[in-house]
Design a protein that fits this description.
The chain has three domains: about 210 residues, 3-Layer(aba) Sandwich (Rossmann fold); about 120 residues, no CATH class; about 80 residues, Elongation Factor Tu (Ef-tu), domain 3. Helix 1 crosses helix 6, helix 3 runs antiparallel to helix 4 and helix 9 crosses helix 10. The two termini are about 40 Å apart. Helices cover about 25% and strands about 30% of the residues. It is an alpha/beta fold and about 425 residues long. The strands form five sheets. The protein has a seven-stranded antiparallel sheet with strand order 14-18-17-16-19-20-15, covered by helices on one side. The chain has a five-stranded parallel sheet with strand order 3-2-1-4-7, sandwiched between helices. A four-stranded mixed sheet has the order 11-8-13-12.
Length: about 425
C-alpha cells in the first residue's frame, strides 16, 4: 500500500511518517502551502518556508520521497472565504474543521492520489477502526490531553476510508521520545497554534482585509435585566421541565437572549463653569453604555481579551453581538446569567452523521456526551431529533454556546458519531 503523509514540519506528522516507514509501507511525504498573505499574522513572513525546510529534512532523515504542493487558491476559496462570511454574519467559525474536510482530506487527498497514493496519513491524535461491513469508526485519541477527533467531525465515510492516523494510540510524550530516538529534526519543535495554515493572528486586523471597521457601542448588562426579563424567566421554566418539551418549546429554549429590548434615553445637562450644554444617557437599571468598539463582527461570545474595558472588579465577557445595530453586550463575572444556556439547536441541513447508519430518526431521543468547542470536557446531554432540527439538551447549563461553532457528540466507548453547526 502506498501512503502519502501530510508532513507539516511538526513532530506529530514526522512520527506518523516514521512509524509507517518502519511498518513497511511504501511512504512518501507531501508538504502543502495554503497561505501566502501575512497581514494580521503574528509570526514572521517566512514561517511556512521554515516549516517546509524542517519537513524536507525529516523526509530525508526517514528516507522517503518529498513533494511540495501549493493549495492556497483552494484554501482561500473553501476555508478563508467561509471564515470571513461567518464573521460578517455574527457567527464564530472553526476553520480547522473546514480545513480537514475541504483541504486535507479532499484537495490534498486528490493530489496525493494523482501521485499514486492509496491513503493519506496525518499526525492527528485520534483512532480509526474499520468494521466488518467496511464502514469506518473514528474514536478519541488515546491521549486525553491531545485528542483531536473534534477537528475531524465533518469527515464522511469516503474520506475516512482513505485516512490513516498512525499516532492516535500514542501519548504526546511517547511521540516526542520516538522523534528524539530517531534523531528527527522536528523532535523539539513546538506545537503550532492559531488558525490552521495561517497561524496566530490579530483577528480584527486579519478580518479587516475584507470586513469594514465601524465603531459601535459596548453595553454592559446588569443582573436587574435578567430579574425583569420574561424570556429569561421562561427559559428557567422550560429548563425545569427537563426534556419533556414540545417542538416549539425546544425551539424557544434553544433561542438565546438578544437584548434588543434594551434601549437608552438621553437627557441634556449643563457642565462646567460655562455651563456648556451636553447630552448623556438617562440612568437605566438594566444596562449602561460603557465604551466603544471597532465592529461587532470582530467579537465572539465568551470573549474576554481585547475589549479594552477597565474599572471592573471581576472579568468582563461578551454576552452577545448585534451585527445589524453594531452593538456588543457584555457582562461582569465568571458566569454572567447571559453566558449560560441549557439547550442548542442544529438546523436539519447542518446535521452530519459520520456513520449514516447511526443517524437518529425524527421523534427519537438519545443520550450522548457532547462538546461544543475543542478541549472542552465532554458534557452529558440528551439529543432530541425533531422536524425543525436536532436539539441538544445539556444536563448542566453550558457557558458560551457560540453560533457557528461545531457541536460534536460521542458514544460512551469514545466513538465520535456526528456533528453540526450551532
Amino acid at each position: 500500500m502506498k501512503i502519502c503523509v501530510g508532513l507539516s514540519g511538526g513532530v506529530d506528522s514526522s512520527v506518523a511518517a516514521l512509524l509507517l516507514k518502519q511498518q513497511g509501507y511504501d511512504v512518501f511525504a507531501m508538504f502543502m502551502q495554503n497561505w501566502h498573505d501575512t497581514e494580521g499574522t503574528l509570526h514572521g513572513d517566512c514561517e511556512w518556508e521554515e516549516d517546509k525546510f524542517v519537513a524536507e529534512m525529516v523526509a530525508r532523515k526517514i528516507g522517503i520521497p518529498f513533494y511540495f504542493i501549493d493549495l492556497s487558491k483552494e484554501y482561500r476559496q473553501r476555508v478563508v472565504d467561509y471564515l470571513f462570511d461567518e464573521y460578517a454574519h455574527g457567527r464564530t467559525p472553526n476553520p480547522d474543521v473546514l480545513c480537514n474536510r475541504e483541504i486535507k482530506f479532499d484537495a490534498f487527498l486528490q493530489a496525493a492520489q494523482h501521485l499514486g497514493a492509496d491513503c493519506v496519513a496525518t499526525g492527528h491524535y485520534c483512532r480509526k477502526e474499520t468494521l466488518p461491513d467496511g464502514s469506518c469508526r473514528i474514536l478519541e485519541g488515546s491521549d486525553p490531553n491531545k485528542d483531536q477527533s473534534y477537528f475531524l467531525c465533518q469527515l464522511n465515510q469516503e474520506q475516512l476510508s482513505k485516512a490513516m492516523f498512525p499516532i492516535g494510540n500514542l501519548l504526546k510524550p511517547e511521540v516526542r521520545r520516538l522523534a528524539k530516538e530517531a534523531d528527527l529534526p522536528s523532535a523539539d519543535k513546538k506545537d503550532s497554534q492559531g488558525i490552521c495554515f495561517v497561524g496566530k493572528v490579530d483577528l480584527p486586523v486579519f478580518l479587516q482585509q475584507k470586513l469594514k471597521s465601524v465603531e459601535g457601542d459596548v453595553v454592559e448588562v446588569f443582573d436587574a435585566y435578567y430579574a425583569d426579563s420574561a424570556k429569561h424567566a421562561r427559559d428557567r421554566e422550560l429548563l425545569a421541565k427537563g426534556i419533556e418539551l414540545t417542538d416549539s418549546e425546544l425551539l424557544e429554549l434553544s433561542t438565546p437572549l438578544d437584548y434588543s429590548d434594551i434601549r437608552f434615553e438621553t437627557e441634556t445637562y449643563r457642565s462646567g463653569k460655562k455651563h456648556v450644554k451636553k447630552t448623556r444617557d438617562k440612568v437605566n437599571p438594566w444596562a449602561k453604555r460603557i465604551g466603544r468598539h471597532e465592529g461587532a463582527q470582530f467579537y465572539t461570545i465568551g470573549q474576554r481579551k481585547g475589549l479594552g474595558i477597565g474599572g471592573h472588579a471581576s472579568p468582563v465577557f461578551v454576552l452577545a453581538t448585534d451585527i445589524e445595530r453594531n452593538i456588543i453586550y457584555v457582562g461582569e463575572g465568571e458566569t454572567p446569567p447571559g453566558l449560560l444556556r441549557g439547550c442548542l439547536r442544529i438546523a436539519p441541513d447542518e446535521i452530519h452523521w459520520i456513520r449514516p447508519s447511526e443517524a437518529m430518526q425524527i421523534g427519537e431521543n438519545r443520550r450522548y456526551r457532547v462538546r461544543i468547542r475543542y478541549r472542552q470536557p465532554l458534557q452529558d446531554a440528551t439529543l432530541l431529533m425533531r422536524e425543525n432540527g436536532l436539539f441538544i439538551r445539556f444536563d448542566e447549563p453550558q457557558r458560551s454556546i457560540t453560533p457557528g461553532q461545531f457541536a460534536v457528540w460521542y458514544a460512551p466507548d469514545g466513538e465520535m458519531l456526528g456533528s453540526g453547526v450551532i
